[in-house]
Design goal:
45% of the residues lie in helices and 16% in strands. By secondary structure, the protein is α+β, with helices and mostly antiparallel strands. It has two domains: 3-87, Winged helix-like DNA-binding domain superfamily/Winged helix DNA-binding domain (Arc Repressor Mutant, subunit A), CATH 1.10.10; 96-154, Ferric-uptake regulator, C-terminal dimerisarion domain (Dna Ligase, domain 1, 2-Layer Sandwich), CATH 3.30.1490. It has a three-stranded mixed sheet with strand order 4-3-5, with no helix packed on it. A two-stranded antiparallel sheet has the order 1-2. The radius of gyration is 17 Å and the shape is globular. The model is unreliable at 1-10 (pLDDT under 50). Bound molecules: zinc ion (3 copies). One zinc ion (ZN) is lined by residues 43, 86, 95, 97, 108.
Length: 155
C-alpha cells in the first residue's frame, strides 16, 4: 500500500482495543500516559509527560513508554537534541514537524508531496520503506518577521 492511500484511509485505532489485541492490560498508569500523549498537540518530552502524570513514578513512566514504543503505540522523535514522544500513526494522522529554533514552537506538516517523494525515491532504489521520520528545523514566519502576534498574522 502506498503512503498516500495510507494517509487518507487510516482511521484512528482505539487504545483499549489495540491493547486487547496485544494481550496487554490497560492499567491506570498506562491509560493516563496514553491520554497525556493523546491530548498533546505536539510531541512531549519525558518531563512534559511527567507533569501530566504526577501520580506515576518515573520507573513506571519509563517502562510504560518503552513498552508503548515496542508495541507501536508511541514513537520517539528526535527534534533538535531532545528525545520526544508522540503517538504513532495508528492513533493520529501521519505528519511531520517544523521546529522553530528561536521560539521552540513545533508545528505539524502534513504534505502529500513529502509522502510522494518518499515513495518515488524508495521505488527508484528498490527499497521497501516501512517507516520514516522527517523533521525540519529553522525559523518560523512569526520569528522571521519579528511579529509575535500570531493571531494577527493568521488572519
Ligand atoms: Zn507530531
Ligand atoms: Zn519561531
Ligand atoms: Zn511522512
Amino acid at each position: 500500500m502506498c503512503c498516500i492511500n495510507y494517509v487518507i484511509l487510516q482511521h484512528m485505532t482505539d487504545f483499549d482495543a489495540h491493547m486487547h489485541t496485544l494481550k496487554l492490560r490497560v492499567t491506570n498508569p498506562r491509560k493516563t500516559i496514553f491520554e497525556a500523549l493523546s491530548d498533546a498537540s505536539e510531541p512531549l518530552s519525558i518531563g512534559d509527560i511527567q507533569k501530566h502524570c504526577r501520580d506515576i513514578d518515573r520507573v513506571t513512566l519509563y517502562r510504560t513508554l518503552e513498552m508503548f514504543t515496542k508495541n507501536n503505540i508511541v514513537k520517539i522523535i528526535h527534534i533538535g537534541w531532545k528525545k520526544q514522544y508522540e503517538l504513532t500513526d495508528l492513533f493520529q494522522p501521519h505528519h511531520h514537524h517544523f521546529r522553530c529554533t528561536t521560539c521552540q514552537d513545533i508545528s505539524h506538516v502534513s504534505d502529500s508531496e513529502v509522502e510522494e517523494a518518499i515513495d518515488t525515491i524508495s521505488i527508484r532504489h528498490g527499497f521497501t520503506v516501512t517507516s520514516h521520520q522527517f523533521e525540519l528545523e529553522g525559523t518560523c514566519r512569526y520569528c522571521l518577521t519579528g511579529n509575535t502576534n500570531r493571531e494577527l498574522l493568521n488572519k
